[in-house]
Amino acid sequence: MITDAGLESLATLQQLQHLDLCGCDKIKDAGLASIGALHLLRFLDLRDCAMITDVGLTSITALRKLQHLDLTLCNKITDVGIAGVTKLPQLQYLGLEGCFKITDASLTSVAALHQLRHLDLSSCNKITDEGLVNVATLHTLQILYLRDCTMITNTGLVGFDALHHLLHLDLSGCVKITDVSLVSSVTLHGCWSAKRKHLS
C-alpha cells in the first residue's frame, strides 16, 4: 500500500519520467507535494486517487515537462484545481472522467492547453454546450470522450467543424443529442471513429 510517506522517498529520483499511481487511494495532497519535485516527469497517472484535492494539484503545476496527466475518478477536484493545469504547457493527454464537480469553467482553463491531443470528459455531467465552445478551440485535439455528459446537446457540437485533426469522438450516453440533428449540425473532418451508441 503506497502512502504519502512512500512518495516522499521518490522525490530523490530526479531522472524519473514515468509514474503510475493508479488506484493508490491512500495518497493525499502531501504526497503530491513530493511528486512536484520530479521536474523531468512526463507521465503521471493518478486514476482513482480519490483523496487528492485542488491543493494537491497545485503542487504538480511545477512539472512543466508533463505530457500525460490522468485524474480519472479524482472526484474531489474542482474548477479551481483544473485552472492550475494551464501551467503545464506541454500537456497532450488529460483524463478527467468522473470528476463530476468540474463545470464549464474548467473548459475555459483547458482551452489554454494548445498541445492537447486527448481529452476525456466522460461522466462530467455538469458540462454544457457553453463549455464545448472552448473545447472547439483545441485545434490539435485527436481524441475526445464526452460519454455520459448528459447536459450537452447538438448545439454544443456545432463548433466542432474546427477540429480538423479529430480522429475519435465518443458521444455514447449523451441522451440530448440526436442522429438527425448531429448530421445536420457538424462535419467531422477525417474523424474515423465517431461513437454514438444509444443516440436516438
Automatic annotation (TrEMBL):
Protein name: Receptor-type protein kinase, putative
Organism classification: Eukaryota, Discoba, Euglenozoa, Kinetoplastea, Metakinetoplastina
GO terms for cellular component: SCF ubiquitin ligase complex
Keyword Protein biosynthesis belongs to the record: no
The Disease resistance R13L4/SHOC-2-like LRR domain, residue ranges: 8-188
Highest taxon listed in the record's lineage: Eukaryota
GO molecular function, a single term: kinase activity
Family matches, as Pfam families: LRR_14
GO biological process: SCF-dependent proteasomal ubiquitin-dependent protein catabolic process
Keywords noted in UniProt: Kinase, Receptor, Repeat, Transferase
